[in-house]
Backbone:
């Protein structure tokens, strides 16, 4: 493991069911608390991001999604299994760290996109 990898690999991962958060704690004391909805709408899977630039699919109706399981993937990632059946995103340590660092900006981008495209956090839109 390179020094940079040790900084972005969480030392503790905790699911908080009551608050619907995934907590990531790092060796340097940083902690990110990411909502399950945020993690679902920013899944790194092809179903969400597409197979090429500009193919991203806006995720709607994910407000009440839950994480039902976390699966370790080698020494580099986790797979989150969501209550809506989504389970194809592999969240690498680097991707989770970037989500944590940029959560506020990414969340606002998502909300803006929902508003622009007439989507809803509450209901699925075709």
Residues:
């Amino acid at each position: 493991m390179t020094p940079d990898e040790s900084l972005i690999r969480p030392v503790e991962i905790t699911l908080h069911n009551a608050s619907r958060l995934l907590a990531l704690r790092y060796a340097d004391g940083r902690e990110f608390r990411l909502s399950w909805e945020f993690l679902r709408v920013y899944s790194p899977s092809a179903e969400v991001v597409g197979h090429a630039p500009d193919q991203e699919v806006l995720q709607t109706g994910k407000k009440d999604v839950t994480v039902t399981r976390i699966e370790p993937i080698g020494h580099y990632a986790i797979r989150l299994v969501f209550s809506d059946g989504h389970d194809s995103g592999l969240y690498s340590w680097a991707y989770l760290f970037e989500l944590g660092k940029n959560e506020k900006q990414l969340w606002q981008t998502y909300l803006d996109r929902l508003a622009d495209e007439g989507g809803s956090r509450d209901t699925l839109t075709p």
